[in-house]
Amino acid sequence: MLSDSLKTLLASTQSFAIKSQNFHWNIEGSDFPQYHAFYDTLYGDVSDTIDKIAEYIRILGAYTPGSLTRYVELSVIKDQTKIPRAELMFVESLQDCETMIQLVTEMFDQATAERQQGVANYMAELQDLYAKKAWFIRSILKKERE
Ligand SMILES: [Fe+2]
């Protein structure tokens, strides 16, 4: 059901947001100001999507999960309890962006099949958001040309 997929997306988005805030607080390195700011923006942009996802679940007639226990059960984004080095934070965030892109791409097709065009439209927006974040992170990770 589309509402079940939205629950997975909601939980994964919460996990992604928490991890981005963790990295915002704890990242270190010579480019600290840019890294710190990048993760602040990432956290903010991802957090801004949470309420709309949650409200679509209610619009479709299901109840919205709202507890940390349920989010851990439902999320496809793995929690990070450690403080990785800066480069490893970016590698992990890039993989998480790719996981989110895969999820919202599948959900676009599901929403279209169920003729829920508003949800499909929002999945397209989220695909754009995570694709743009992935581009930023790939550019941060790129080694300088000789
Ligand atoms: Fe901050």
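^ fe (ii) ion complex. The helical segments are 2-26, 32-47, 50-59, 68-74, 86-113, 117-141. The mean pLDDT is 97.
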